[in-house]
Write a structure and sequence with these properties.
The chain is globular and about 45 Å long. The chain has about 220 residues and is an all-alpha fold. It is built from twelve helices and no strands. Helix content is about 70%, strand content about 0%. Helix 3 runs antiparallel to helix 8, helix 3 packs across helix 9 and helix 4 runs antiparallel to helix 7. About 50% of the residues are buried.
Length: about 220
Amino acid sequence: MSRAALLVLADGRFPAGGHAHSGGAEPAVTAGRIKDAATLERFCRGRLHTAGLVAAGLAAAAAAGADPLLLDDAADARTPVPALRQVARRLGRQMMRAARATWPSDALDALAAARPRGAHQPVVLGLAARSAGLTPLDAAYAVAYENISGPATAAVRLLSLDPFDATAVLAHLTADLDQVAAQGAEAAARVATEGTDALPTASAPLLDITAEQHAAWPVRLFAS
């Protein structure tokens, strides 16, 4: 295992398409729920413990060797709105392209063939982590961090927020990130004996609602 591979996978410059997505921050800014660093931190913390936790479990399970097709079905069941399912698969398709170029593997090739329109992004990320020789906990960290770094980066553009303040928000959330990654990895370890029902099912209804609304906007800065 090369822990340096985790830095590559979690790097915002890894060409997985995340830069085009705000993780729900754009509609939250428009609605006035995010207006400064303090409200951004509250938004990111809530997202981390809901969508981020679900993603961490899925990614860790994929990295642990669970059936990616079963995990993809589990991801669908935990993504109730069409807009977010479409986003997850679009990001998964882009992640697949980047992962196959970076860490080629039969497992990635098989999932790409089975899901030509894209598997859910956390599942693909978990397989990429496995192909890179990383642990399930590493995969959980990478996807959980992405769930908060995306909105933080988007807020810099949406609010002209000071980048130092946005980075401070991420630093304030490191303890939460540790907790969510550990929870996701622990749940993933139980999939072998309990099935995908062991994975987290946390939900964020407001993120679901605003994602559907955002998808219908005629003009928007981010794809989601």
